[in-house]
Each structure stands twice: as structure tokens, then as C-alpha cells.
Amino acid sequence: MFKATVLIKRRPSILDPQGVAVEKGAKHLGITNIKSTRIGKLIEFDVDLSDRNEAEKEVNLYCSKLLSNPIMEDFEFKLEEVK
Amino acid sequence: MSLKFGVVVFPGSNCDHDAYYSLRKVLNYDVEFLWHKDTDLKQSSVILLPGGFSYGDYLRTGSVARFSPIMNSVISFANKGGIVIGICNGFQILLEAGLLPGVMIRNNSLKFACKDVYLKTENRETIFSAEISEATKALKIPIAHGEGNYFADIELLKELEANRQILFRYSDKDGNVNDENNPNGSQLNIAGIVNKNGNVMGMMPHPERACDPTLGRTDGQLIFKSIANYILN
């Protein structure tokens, strides 16, 4: 079994209205040295397979078909073996 | 071909009954609900994906509904030239399903926008717009969405324009398209598009909420009448 951690990031070319708004909040708080805030997603799940290659294949499919939208997002993931 | 609308009901759809009401009670068309777990389109000649918050809008709007069993039937129906219209969340589902190009992101205001808007019709030669006369400067139809900010890269925008796929753009009441009347930050003020073949249409505004004269706005009827006339004639 593997524990998967997926990181989904919005493509740099795509506006992130949430990031822009959050950064405005930072300015109101007096945190002024922040720029280019981008908000993504962190998704964790278990993969019930013992072979790492097979697990990677499964996670790739999950990420590309459902968890991310390839038009606007990129994903990366790591697999950690759990006993 | 006989005219029959099939309105798909996803968990979280909330404009399915509005659509049914407008089509059945106001316009007197044949309509049937289609359950998302079914695969039978029940001889519908038009499929309508209604507005709402299918699957709670989790992950991305429309991303989970797109894999409902009924969507396989809708996709093959559309690929064979069947007429499909997606309204609001229905538009978002069509984008996720790849039946229409582009993506929808959060409104640039970050606010849920719920108000009447005006739409300039950019192409009157489609299944969905033939009944909109030249004299109609703009349609008055309400929007109600938090993620209606249409995004496409430059190449895609050029393609949409070249193929006349942009159907509606947010405008003022005289049909002038400008930033001031863009309620969500959509590129080129895009409010509705069709696919290349012209048989699939998605729009963020709600024409089904602008049909009953009691509500004081009836421009939405023109869209459904265009579809009906196309099929009946």
C-alpha cells in the first residue's frame, strides 16, 4: 500500500482570482512583502497496490482524468510506501 | 423529428424544475426528466443540462457530474449531432466533459453574481439563436453564479471567433460590449458559446428564468423557440 500526496497547481498563465484576493488581505494585515500568491490543492489518499509502478499508473490516471483539469492545472505527486 | 426536451437531474441540480416549468407550462413543449444514474435518453431530441451545484461543486464545478452514467449517453448523442444545451452548471459540465472548449474559473469579483444582465447575440445563424431578430439589441436574462469567468488561451479565443462559436457576450442594454458590463471577468465578455458543429451550446445566464411573463422578462423564450423551430421545421 502507498500513501499518495497530490499537489495541483493552476498554470502560471491562468489568472487566480482567489490568490489575488487573499494577497489583498495580506496587505490589509500589514504583510507587505508578499507577491504572486497562487492557490492550489493538496489531495491525499491511499493506493491499495503493492507494486510502485502500478500505483504510479493508477495515480496518474486519477490525477489526469478527474483530480486536475489539464486545460488549466498541472499536477505532481509523491508515493510513500506504508506497511 | 418530434420535439422532446430531456432535462438531466444531477444530485445538486436546482434549476431542473425551472427548466421543466418553462418548457412544459409556459412554452407547452414535451419534456421529461432524465435521472443521472440512468443511461436512457428516452427519445429526447434535445438534452438540457440544468443549472445548480451538481455534487456540491466539489473539486471543480461540473467535474464529478461529468462522469455520471447519463453523461456517456449525452456525449455519444452530442457526437452524433444531437442538440445539447447546458445552462450555468450545465455549461460547466459541458466544459469538463470536453463537449465545449475552455474552462470556467471563479468570478473576478470573487462574489456570487445574481442579477439581470444583457446579452448581445453574436451569431444569429445557429440552432439556438435563429429566432432572435436583428432588431433585438440585447437579451435581458438573469445570471446566478460564482464561477462564470470563462477562460481560454489566445489560440482558442481566435479559433472561437474565426468559427463564429461565440454566441452571446455580456453587453449593455443596447448591445454595446464593454468591461463595465462584464459581470465576472470572462474573456471577450463571453457568456455563451457553441461547439464547432453548432449542435452543443453552453451559456452562463439562465434563459429558463426569463420565460414566464409573470416574471417580467421573456427573452429566454427566444432561445428555446429557436431550438423548437429548428427541430419542427
Report what the structure shows.
The complex is a heterodimer of chains A (83) and B (233). The longest helix of chain A has 16 residues, at 52-67. Chain A has helices spanning 17-29, 52-67; strands at residues 2-10, 41-47, 73-81. Helix content of chain A is 35%, strand content 30%. Chain A is elongated. With 83 residues, chain A is an alpha+beta fold. Chain B has 233 residues and is α/β, with parallel strands linked by helices. Chain B has a single domain, classed as Class I glutamine amidotransferase (GATase) domain (Rossmann fold, 3-Layer(aba) Sandwich). Chain B has helices spanning 16-26, 69-79, 89-96, 154-162, 220-232; strands at residues 5-9, 31-35, 46-49, 83-87, 103-105, 113-121, 139-145, 149-151, 166-171, 190-194, 200-203. In chain B, the strands form two sheets. In chain B, strands 2-1-3-4-11-10-9-6-7 form a nine-stranded mixed beta sheet, sandwiched between helices. A two-stranded antiparallel sheet of chain B has the order 5-8. In chain B, helix 2 links the parallel strand 3 (46-49) and strand 4 (83-87). Chain B starts with a strand and ends with a helix. Classes of the chains: A alpha+beta (83), B alpha/beta (233). Chain A binds chain B through residues 13-18, 21, 66-67, 69, 71-72, and chain B through 59-60, 63-64, 67, 96, 102-103, 105-110, 149, 151, 153, 185.
